[in-house]
Amino acid sequence: MNSGTVDTKIMKCVRALVKRIMTSSSKPTLVTSGQRKLLKLLLLVALSFCSYLFFSRLVVTAVEVKGVSMSPTLIAGDLFMLNRFAYLTREPQRGELVVLKDPETGELIVKRIVGMPCETVVMQNDIAYVNGKRLPEPYATRSTRMDRSQLGKPTVVPRDCYFVLGDNRSRSLDSRKFGPIKRESILGVISL
């Protein structure tokens, strides 16, 4: 059963019970002990559900890594906590692992921030150069081939955008393909 269906049914029951109690007659209504317990239980369930939604949508959510684009840092099947609250109080930083919506498929993916707003990023043989300087990336795996055809053209990261890459450069679809991602596409940060 879909959780949305259960939520709707619970809310309908609570509304119907409150409406029945409020409109049953013009005489003062005496609420029995059983009805009082039922109301407390329904209120507790409704409040619990609302707090769950708030916490999981705005603060912390569990995410599972899929694919090999972040290996060896993250392996398919690994579970992590996505901190959604972090970016409500500060901006993303270079080197952080972030969860974002893939601009092409809409699926959630994990990538690493390499280029910040207004910086110039150039990729050469799976190595990132930011503003003309090689970015130290001990976490990145690179292909063993040194193919000069892999020289990339400079990408100027627009304001309010970030250049993201997978750690497994030869197996990652990232900003090299879909370009810099907007800040609003970043859902939160993963801490290791």
What does this structure look like?
The chain is an alpha+beta fold and 192 residues long. It has 2 domains: 3-58, no CATH class; 60-190, Umud Fragment, subunit A. It is built from 4 helices and 11 strands, in the order H-H-E-E-H-E-E-E-E-E-E-E-H-E-E. It has helices at 3-23, 33-58, 86-89, 175-178; strands at residues 60-64, 79-83, 97-101, 108-115, 120-124, 127-130, 133-134, 155-156, 161-165, 181-182, 186-190. Strands 1-2-11-3-4-9-10 form a 7-stranded antiparallel sheet. The chain has a 4-stranded antiparallel sheet with strand order 7-6-5-8, with no helix packed on it. Helix 1 (3-23) runs antiparallel to helix 2 (33-58). The protein is elongated. The relative contact order is 0.16.
Describe the structure concisely for a colleague.
The protein has 192 residues and is an alpha+beta fold. It has helices at residues 3-23, 33-58, 86-89, 175-178, and strands at residues 60-64, 79-83, 97-101, 108-115, 120-124, 127-130, 133-134, 155-156, 161-165, 181-182, 186-190. It is elongated, with a radius of gyration of 25 Å.
